[in-house]
Request: fold
Amino acid sequence: MACLWAWGALWPGVVQAAEGQGFAELRLSSFPGADGDLWQVVERVRPTLETSLGERVKLVAVIEAGLAQGRDNERELRRIFETVGCTSPRPDNDFLGISSADDYLDVDRLYLDFYGKGVDLRVGRQSVNWGSARFLNPTDPFPELLLTEPWRPRRGVNAARATLPFGDLHDATLVVASDDAFTQVRTAARVRLNAWATDWALVGAWRSDDEDAFVGVDFRGTLGVGWWVEAAWHLTGERDVEASAGVDYSFPVLERLVVTAQYTFHGGSRADAVPGGSAGTSAGTLPASACSSSALQASLAGTGEAAPFASPLTGRNYLLLAAALQVLPDWGGSLTQLQNVDDGTAVLIPTVSWQAADWLEVAMAAQVPLAVWGDGGELKPKDQHLVPTTGGLATLLDLRGLVPDAVVTLWTRASF
Reply:
């Protein structure tokens, strides 16, 4: 941030105005049923600075700083590794889990906006998110699942994005992006039209990470109820088709009641996917070469890194059901259920929120894994998945203590 103010000192005739905004956040979470620390406290601040560099050019920087105390999954995993003879370096400050400024300070967004007469350009680290479906977006070129982490912004992407509006309600967008090491190229394009009170979009994307590409469509409109249909066809790889379709409707109950239902299909997923790799190591103390973080992680994951376009979920069929009730102007609540239709597991997310002031929001939320039918699976793992009997290095590890019965979070955010 100091560099941005330095630019203003060097070029006082160019920097015309600067505006700061952002938020500070405090989260307290508990993890009943887990081993190790059963609580966590997170302090986080995320200021945004916007600086005008001319009539049509703006520089935006978003800095995030955060500290955490209490439960740390990496620490808990390290503790489990130590039970089988593996050791790894600890952070210099083990209480906060940090060794350098990179562990608590990040430039999450840093981009230039140019507003031209025929095109808008954004160049730099930015957020890219496409698709009309709720949380599960087949046509998103950079997919993330934020359902259980509503406080987390999408990850920044190194990209150049050009948006060309035409007509009153139409536009075309082209994105050229790279990974953080600037070694892999990722491209995406979308043409969006509006007709008959409906948005119609055609999307295509390609990433050099695994030479996978997809083409897709994204429709959204209203027919008495809000509706959306989003689908992508992968041209290579195992995930041939992904699609999400859903509806929502608002009822005049108290302030407002909104109900949502969505079905998502992942054609290339395996409903029986389970943790566990194929490396061959018998019980006992692991050799030093097998104790590296990468070796153990590969053993647990089984297949290494996921394909870049892959969904964060591994099943085929999902239902997303939600109801959000605004009781008073300042009080509201919601109940969301993500259901794996194949194995019967689900995660239930009840939330209560209070807008205490224009600048202050308080919320209480829980994440409760369930086996609605069956004996466990993806969203509520079976014991044999957490204590695998096959999978080489993984057979030595008892991971049951990593999975709590629920996660309960009190979340407070103050905007400035």
